[in-house]
User: Fold this.
Amino acid sequence: MNSANYLYLSALLFTLGAVGVVVRRNAIVVFMCIELMLNAANLSFVTFSRINGNLDGQVVAFFTMVVAACEVVIGLAIIVTIYRSRRSASVDDASLLKR
Amino acid sequence: MFNTNSLVYLIGLPLFGATFLLLAGRKVDKWGHILATVLSGSAFIVGVDQFFQMANRAPEDRAITQVLFSWINVGTFNVDAALLLDQLSICFVLLITGVGTLIHIYSIAYMSHDENRRRFFAYLNLFIAAMLLLVLGNSYLNLYVGWEGVGLASYLLIGFWNQKPAYATASKKAFIANRVGDMGLSLAIMIAFATLGTVSFAGVAEKSHTASQGALTAIGIMLLVAATGKSAQFPLQAWLGDAMAGPTPVSALIHAATMVTAGVYLIVRSNFIFDAAPTAQLLVVIIGAITLMFGAIIGTAKDDIKKALAASTMSQIGYMVLASGLGPVGYAFAIMHLLTHGFFKAGMFLGAGSVMHGMDDEVNMRKFGGIRLFMPITFVTFGLGYLAILGVPPFAGFYSKDKIIETAFYSGGIKGILIGSVALLGAGITAFYMSRLMILTFMGTPRYTEDKNPHESSFLILLPMAILAIGSVASGFLLSHGNALVNWLSPLFEMTEETENEIMPPIVISSLALVFVAAGFALAWKMYARSAVSNTAPTDVSIFTKAARRDLFQDDFNEAVFMRPGQLLTKTLVSTDELLVDGTVRGIGKAAIGSGNLLRTTQTGFVRSYAALILIGAISLIAAIWVVTQ
Assistant:
């Protein structure tokens, strides 16, 4: 199977994720979209690893997974805390940094 | 060798008086004026003592120098604060302290009703000290200190009644006009130092032969500019008339007898420069001739007795400047006229002050008339000064002014005839305006209002006038008897071989001068004694009278040429500063604030818009890379 197809899929997933981040308001959904983008990137790494015939891409993919796991933990904790204090999970409500 | 230590007392005594009276405050109000007069008198006694010591020495040993301290000592530039008393300075020392002391005595009575009399005497002493420093300094730099000092004293005394805005303005006008001249003096000092490496009189005299003609001419012209400022000569003459705002003793001392003649002193003292720079010397003559006519013409139209005398002073100093521009033969006559003028003009100013005192400070001559009956002593003393300035023999002015006219005629060629005629005509006009002043004030019938009560002044006012009147009678004869002053001063000047240029014998010139004087007197007699005089100035007068009344447009000229363009320049500079300099600085600030505000709108605080921006940025970056690598 042509390896390029994986890249196309990766690009598609990334675009979905990016659009999701920009258009959705719910913090959980935005968060999931970020995960989607990360994993789209992972897919590209693995594909390139395969195309180039070495393991560098695989190694980076593992790194990304580890980092994503940490990010999920912290990110979810922040979202839960914000929800507790503001009774809302909308990212537009948390715009206090402007002032 | 000689006892030279007493020179410092000449300056020190009045300087102490000025400092003490200014610092001691109201406690010494009761006797401050006495102290000032005594100190000035002591300086005169020291001066007389020095004069007799000097006269007893051989002519080549007469000049003495007292070094006070090393003033400036930088590399090759060494200036001592040193005093030089020679045949020329002693004339001035005696004039300044002598007339100065008389005017101190006069002021005791004249200023007795003024609550600031102590301050007035402090300033008078300050003036005496500064003027003595001016004539005693042994270098241009020492002279410059005195030069500025008399300018300051003149400013303070013209504006002594500065509660009147016009008087305060007059003092500022005098100061500013003098500053223009002072610039000339400082430039002359700088050029002298740059080209000759020294600023002392002896040093410059010694090295002046080595300097180029151009440098000497430049120094000469700058010195002339300085002289025109201080001596109220054309084109810096406009301040003298307004300077009459000061109390009358000030006008007599500073603006008639001493300070305004400092310019003549400067030119005569710098004889070695002018002798070597004929162009500058010619300019001196031209300036003198112009001012001599200028002042005389203004004098004919003035109704204010002090302003008429001021115009006369300007004209007489024009004579002195003219004489000092005629080279070695003229210097002694310039000084002689300066000394006789010091007597008769100071005497007449004091007389004018006495008249004003008896007439409730009225200065308009059209509102005088017939005062001789009430003020006989003032009339006689004033009259003697009047005869002296006219040049009637045997009064003082005859000896000094005739010599100047004679020397002018003998200076040779067209130039000699031209300036000689100007001087002769000036003598005629002098006779006219002085007779006019005399007739309007003392002769005729009273034109003053009923409430005026003319009365003779007190003894302290009359005494100085009497002494000065004696000087007006005798000084000319004493100074020229056996060529006394010429021989006295001659060691100072490099006499050149006189080329005899007698276009007519002296007796003819003297007679001509007398004819002109008689004509001037006759005209004044016809206009003011034989016909009725209105107590208001007539308005239907010729354009020449109008011009003379407006001081020949000297103020209008200065305003049009210097003041208005100057104001325009400052206004332009101010608006340039505000628009360009401040505008740039403020513009930078505004640009920073504006761009900040613009950028702030991108900081919405919404996470999604940041994400969108990041996305757009990333996409543009990739697109750019793609475009570049294609």
